[in-house]
Amino acid sequence: MFLTAIFTLALLLRQHTFTPDETAEGGRLFQSNCASCHGSAGDQVPGVALMSGKFRRASTDDEVARIIRNGIPGTAMQSFNFTEQQAAMVVAYLRSVAGTTTASSDMPALGDTSRGKAILEGKGQCLSCHRVGENGSRVGPDLTSIGAPRPAAVFFGPPPPAPTPAAIVQQLLHSLLDPDSEVAPANRTYRTVLKDGTTITGRLLNLDTFTIQLFDSKERLMTLQRSDVRDFALLKSPMPSYRDKLTPQELSDLLAYLVSLK
Ligand code: HEC
Ligand code: HEC
Fold first, then answer.
1. Mean of the pLDDT values across residues 166-186?
2. Which ligand is nearest to the CA of 43?
3. pLDDT of the residue at 153
4. Residue 37: CB within 6 Å of ligand 1?
């Protein structure tokens, strides 16, 4: 069972036809155009599970892309004015998340917690950006209780049920393999250019009418007056994908450690 799971993980790491940028763009298109009805996990329309890898009305990627561009007449599924490329990127995104959720009742393999801790502190260099307890850095989100269930983002309608343990593992795996495709707004990295030319890059903490607060890359809390700011832009995730950096075994060890952090 353990070996099968490792094998599945290995397969999952190989299937990758779109670039991470394209898949991430598909994710953005999905979250801004589709999540209002389908939910951010694609499962809010009864009977439709867009991230399960299976569609009722389509069996190929082209058919899914066609549904996106043409809609389903007579239903709330409207047509979207997407280019073929955009529709294909959305499908690539749905497939990439489906990849991480294959056999969704079955958790990805969890390896050895103490080896996972060693990878996080050593080879993975995770502490150069993240913090666990008292150790590490504040460039990225604090991982101290990353294994605890968190409520999903709600766009419309009633809050979704708390994520299952398997869903938590899959979400973590997704963060490690495709860090750029689904970033919580509070975790996004912004680049701010002040009117005097100073550039500050950091994680957004708070944004109001007059100020922008960020943690800069040296972990300093900066409060900037919006009137001093010339340019404010979202950057790609600084987090590297670990798809090719860690072996499947190392990934399962790391996952085991991450889910133990509560
Ligand atoms: C206004 C609500 C709404 C929006 C927005 C919406 N959908 Fe849908 N979608 C539906 C509904 C309702 C269905 C189910 C239609 C049916 O089969 O009765 C559906 C069905 C689908 C299906 C077919 C599912 C299957 O199992 O065959 C796909 C694929 C799909 N949507 C993708 C998308 C994508 C991608 C987007 C964003 C680009 C999107 N939808 C936006 C409401 C919506
Ligand atoms: C160069 C900095 C950097 C490194 C190295 C890095 N991360 Fe990240 N990580 C981030 C940032 C920034 C985010 C916030 C979201 C984003 O931009 O992807 C993040 C997001 C995450 C998330 C999602 C957090 C959430 O709240 O959903 C997890 C889990 C994670 N990282 C784990 C790791 C692990 C484990 C390692 C080491 C194997 C690692 N990261 C290495 C910067 C980094």
1. 78
2. 1
3. 57
4. yes
The full length of the chain comes to 262
Distance from CA of residue 19 to its chain's centroid? 15
Pocket test for ligand 2, best of 120, 130, 235, 252 (most atoms within 8 A of CB): 130
Give the list of residues 6+ apart from residue 121 with CB closer than 8 angstroms, or none. 127, 135
Of 112, 145, 163, 121, nearest to 261 by C-alpha is 145
Q: What is the structure's pLDDT at 139?
A: 82
Share of the chain above pLDDT 70, in %: 83
Read off the tokens for 194.
């002040």
Q: What is the pLDDT of residues 132-149, one digit of tens each?
A: 999 999 888 899 999 988
Ligand whose nearest atom lies closest to the CA of 20: 2
Measured in Å, residue 39 CA sits from the centre of ligand 1 at 11
Query: Residue 106 above 70 pLDDT?
Result: no
Half-sphere exposure of 33 (CA within 13 A, CB side): 18
